[in-house]
Amino acid sequence: MAADTRADPAFCFMMVVWGERYRRYFTEYCLPSLLAPNNIPCLVNKEASKFAIATTAEDWAELNKLEVFKLLRNHVEPVLHELPSFKVNDPKMLVMSSGHKKLSNYAFDRRAFGVNINPDSIYSDHTVSQLQKSAHNGVKMVLYPGVRFEFESVVDELRQAGAFNEGTVISISPRNAAGIGIRNPHPFTRVCDWDSDCFFDFPVYHYLISPKRDAMVLHTISMGPIMLDYGSINEHDDHIFEKWTLDGDYAHSNFGHFDVYNEIEYVDDSDRFMVLGFTPASEDVPPQRKLFPFLKELNKGIRLRRVYTEPIVDPLKKRLYLRQVVFHQGDLNAGLEEIAAKDWRIMSRYILHLIADNSVLAYFKRFEPASALEPVDGWAKMHVYVFRAYVPVYVVLRFAMRGARLIKYVCVGIARWFWRNRNQLGSAVADRIRRMLSTAAAPPSRP
Description:
- This protein has two domains: 11-373, no CATH class; 378-431.
- Helix content is 44%, strand content 14%.
- It has helices spanning 20-34, 57-63, 67-73, 92-110, 127-136, 151-160, 174-183, 187-190, 250-255, 296-308, 315-321, 334-350, 358-367, 378-420, 422-441; strands at 11-16, 50-55, 77-82, 113-116, 121-123, 141-145, 148-150, 205-209, 215-220, 223-229, 264-266, 275-279, 325-328.
- It has a seven-stranded mixed sheet, with helices on both faces.
C-alpha cells in the first residue's frame, strides 16, 4: 500500500479501453491532451502516481508500441489490469463496469486519489493541476458535468486551430475548449436545448445559449466523479458495478456522506477546466419530434419534472442538479447574466416547488445567481400554480394519446393484414358468392 500525504498526493489515473477505435481515441486525442504542461507533467508525486488501464492483452501490446505511450512513461508508470475474456455481443456497459471495478479497488488499496479518465474525451490544460489543488485543500470528491459534443466538428476545429501541430501533445486552454464545445454540440445535446422545438423526452441536461453563442448555462443529472480520495474512506462499496456503471449512484454510495459544501466539489465553471467528451454525429441520435406549439413550455417543464423526480437519481445528484453550470469562452458579461436569469426562472417555475427539504433549498440559495435575488413577481407565482394544475391534465392527455395511438396501431395492423392477404381473401369471397348464386339458381327439390 502506497503512503500518501496532503502535501504530495498520489494520483491513480483510471481508464477502461478496448478495441482499435477507442484505443485510437485514447492515443490520438485523450492522452495527448493529458500530456499538456499543466496536466500529468505537473504532478508533484510522480513516483507514487500510476496510470492504471483496464484493457485486453492485445490492446496493451498495441499501446506499448506507440511513441505517445512511451512519453507517458516518462511521467507516470502505466499499469495493466487485464479485462476478463468477453464476447463481442456482451453488453459494452457491463464490460466497462468490470474494468471500473478492478480499477477502483486498485486505487482504494493504494489509498490514492483516483482520477477517472474516459478515452473518448479531450481534457483542457490545467485539468490535473486543478485536481491537485483540490486534493491539497482536503476535497474528497470532485464531480464534473458530462455533456456530449460532436466528434467530427470538434476535431476539425482543433485541427484548424493548430492543436495537433505538436504531434504527441494537445494543449488547449479551458476557455478555448469551452468555446469549441458550445459551438459543436452532439445531436443528443441539441435536443436538450431549452429553446429547441424538439425538446427531448428525458432531458438528462437542459441548457440555454447566450445570444453571441459564446456561453452556455446548463443543469444536468449526468455527472461523474472525476477525482475520488480513496484514502478518506474505510470501506469501498463496489456492488454498483455488477448492474450499473460509474455514472450510477457509486459516488453517492461511497462519498455522499462528506460535507457537500467543503469536501465535495462540483465543477460549475469551465474556467477551472473543461472536458470535451465526444461522440460521432451519427451515433446515439435521439428522435426529432417537435412539440405542439400550444403549451410548449409547460410540456418542457413536465419533462424537467420527470427527470428530477426519477427514482434512480440519487440525492446527491438531485442537489447538484440545482447548480447552474457555466461554459464560457470569454468573460462573464451581460449576455450571460441574461440567460442565467432566464434559467433561474425556469428552475423556479418547474423544479423548486417540488423540493420540501429545507437543507436542499438552502444549498440552492447558496449557489443561486445574483440575478435570482430579485423578488419573484405575481406572474411568476401564478405560473407555478398553473403548472401544478396542468400536471394531472398532462398525465390524462398522455394516457389518452397512448390509447389513441394503440387504436391506430391496431387499425393499421388489421388493414395491413387484409392488404397482404387480399388475393386469398378475394378468391375466398368470390368462391362464396359463386356458391350462393349456384344455390339460388338450383331448382327446388320435390318432396
